[in-house]
Specification:
- The chain has 70 residues and is α+β, with helices and mostly antiparallel strands.
- Helices cover 30% and strands 24% of the residues.
- Strands 1-2 form a two-stranded antiparallel ribbon.
Amino acid sequence: VTNVGVTGTLLAFPLVAPGEPAILAPGAIAGGRCWLALCYDRAHYDEYGADRLLAAVADRLQALASANGA
C-alpha cells in the first residue's frame, strides 16, 4: 500500500518496485467510496489474478465498514 499524496485527483497509478508483485494505491474518497488502484507485475499476476486480488481487498474493506456501522 502506498500514499500517492495530495494532488486533488481521484486516483493515481504508482510504479511497482522491482521484486514486488503489486502495489495498492488508495485514492480520493468521494460519495462515501474510496477509489483504489492496483498496479501489478505481470510476471506475478495475470489480469484475472489481479482482478481477484483487488476484489478481495474491496470486499474486506466493505466488511470492515459494515462492522463499524458505516
